[in-house]
Every structure is written in structure tokens, then in C-alpha cells.
Amino acid sequence: MIKVGEHITLDFLGVKKDYPQSFYEKVIYKIAKAAKVEILNVSSHKFEPQGFTLIALLSESHFSFHTFPEKNVISFDFFTCGKVPPKIALKILKKEIQHERVVAKSFDRSSVSLYDDIYSTSGQKKYYVVNNVLETFTSKVGQFVEIMSLEEFGNALFIDHEIQVAEKDEKIYSSSFFKSSYDLSKKNNNVAIIGGGDGGVARECLENNANYIDWYELDPEIVESCYRHLPKVCSKVKKSNRVNTYWGDAFESIKLIEDSKYDKIFVDLNDDQYCIDLAKKNMK
């Protein structure tokens, strides 16, 4: 991780008093002294009929005030690369500003980012902590592909903003997928896979002695990207001569295959509604 500093934003709510310009010009020096930062320059502006803004340029970056008297809000932010965390400002301002509530948000300014989980709601937000973005592109078949290095799950594949597979726990999914079929039938000589572009299910079939595997996959660019960035998942598949890959519409391709050719057919598609409807349509 590359970290360059820390940032805090403070929004003081329920502020009834309209503080004069001199108040802000005085309090910034209290904050600077406590945070051990150097003020280089101060610029401010008073708006008519109300409102005030001030920014202090620091050797270590900046802090600023902006007031919203019509909403009874005073907003403050402080970004510093100094040794003292900017949260020191919260303790000072809580004493100086008469308020009902303060909303404080703090975060590192760094190479680490947060990626929204698409299943978040307005009342419950979930994120993936991203250490690095390894590859992003829109494939020729129209899928938006991202390969990211996640703090908790290692390298992971996202398609159209939804996580598909991650190195850390992929084997749980793929092995369970295979085992559920093996519990129904021990025959495993000839298998077909529809989808499964990460190669995890194909790897499980290889490890469980499938003689040959016909792999029907829509998007070759996803497979190649997984070969590059998810070797723990699919390197065995790339090296195997028991895997035959067929690109394009899997359901159309497999209709041309003679009956009873396969002992098992695995359908490993995305969880979006389009793929669900597609599977239902072709598996009647």
C-alpha cells in the first residue's frame, strides 16, 4: 500500500450561532498548533446574504471551513501528511462550535480503494477493499471485466460489477459444484461445461480424472484474463490436453452434440437475470 496522508471531514449539525470571520481565523491556529502543521497562507470569503468559506494552505496540505447558515451546518475538512492524525481537530472543534450533532468521516489517502458491492442497499453499504486493479476492459461480446487484488480474498474476477470468483475461496464453490454431481453419479469420463470462464469447475473435473472435457464458453477474453491473473484457479486447465474449448453460444453449440455423449453437463453461468432466463429457456 502507498499511503500519502490522512483526511477527515466534519459536518456540525444544528448550529444556531452565526460565527464571525474572526472566529475561524482564530480557531485554525489552535488546530494547526495541536496538529503540529505549518500554515502558509489563508484565504477566505464572506457571501451575501449569508455563508462563509475559508481555506488554509499548509506545508502538509490543507484544511477548510464552509458554512451553511440556512441549514445550520458548518463543514470542515483536514488533509495532512503530517505525523499527527487530523482527528485532533475534532476534539478542538467540538468544544469551540455549539452544535447538536457532528458527522465525522476519516480515511487514508492511499493506493487502497473501496469497491461497492452491487447488493448493497441504501440502508446497508458493503464494500470490497481493493489493493490494486490489475485489468479492466469491455470484451468484444459486451461484458465489462475487472480483475482486482482484494485485501481479504486475493485476486478476483468481476463481470459487470459483480464478483464472480476469488482465489481465496473459489475452491469451496467449484469443489462443491463438482461433488454435488458426483454424489448423484460416479460416472465422470466425459463431461461438458457451459460457462465457467474462470476455469474452476474444469480444474475440479481434471483433478477427479475426467477423460475429456468439452468446455463451452461465450467469452474467450475472460478466460485469457483469468489465465493471466488467476493461476491458482485455472493454470491446470490451461496446461491440459484433455480440455477442448468451444467459443460462442454454448446452448446453440451443445444442441449439435449427439445424445448421451456426456456423463455430466455442468452449467456454471453468471447469477444475473439474463443468464438465469437463458438457462431456463434452453434446459426445458
Task: Annotate the secondary structure layout.
Layout (H helix, E strand, L loop, with lengths): L2 E11 L7 H15 L3 E8 L5 E7 L2 E8 L4 E8 L7 H9 L4 E10 L2 E4 L10 E12 L5 E7 L3 E6 L2 E5 L3 H15 L5 E6 L4 H8 L4 E6 L2 H10 L1 H9 L3 E5 L2 H5 L9 E5 L4 H10 L2
Parallel strand pairs: 12-13, 12-15, 13-14
Antiparallel strand pairs: 1-5, 1-6, 2-3, 3-4, 4-5, 7-8, 8-9, 9-10, 10-11
Shape: elongated
Instruction: For the largest sheet, list the strands in their spatial order.
Output: 2-3-4-5-1-6
CATH level 1 name of the largest domain: Alpha Beta
> What pattern of helices and strands is seen along the backbone?
EHEEEEHEEEEEEHEHEHHEHEH
Q: What would CATH call the architecture of the largest domain?
A: 3-Layer(aba) Sandwich
- Give the beta-strand count: 15
User: Total helix count?
Assistant: 8
Percentage beta strand: 35-45%
N-end to C-end Cα span = 50 Å
| CATH fold call of the largest domain | Rossmann fold
- Average pLDDT level: 90
Give the biggest sheet: 6 strands, antiparallel
C-alpha-based Rg, rounded: 28 Å
The helix-and-strand class reads alpha+beta
What does this structure look like?
The protein has helices spanning 21-35, 88-96, 170-184, 200-207, 220-229, 231-239, 250-254, 273-282, and strands at 3-13, 39-46, 52-58, 61-68, 73-80, 101-110, 113-116, 127-138, 144-150, 154-159, 162-166, 190-195, 212-217, 243-247, 264-268. With 284 residues, the chain is of the alpha+beta class. The protein folds into three domains: 3-110, 4-Layer Sandwich (S-adenosylmethionine decarboxylase), CATH 3.60.90.10; 113-166, Spermidine synthase, tetramerisation domain (Spermidine Synthase, Chain: A, domain 2); 170-282, Rossmann fold (3-Layer(aba) Sandwich), CATH 3.40.50.150. A hairpin with a 4-residue loop joins strand 4 and strand 5. Helix 4 crosses helix 6 and helix 5 (220-229) crosses helix 6 (231-239). It starts with a strand and ends with a helix.
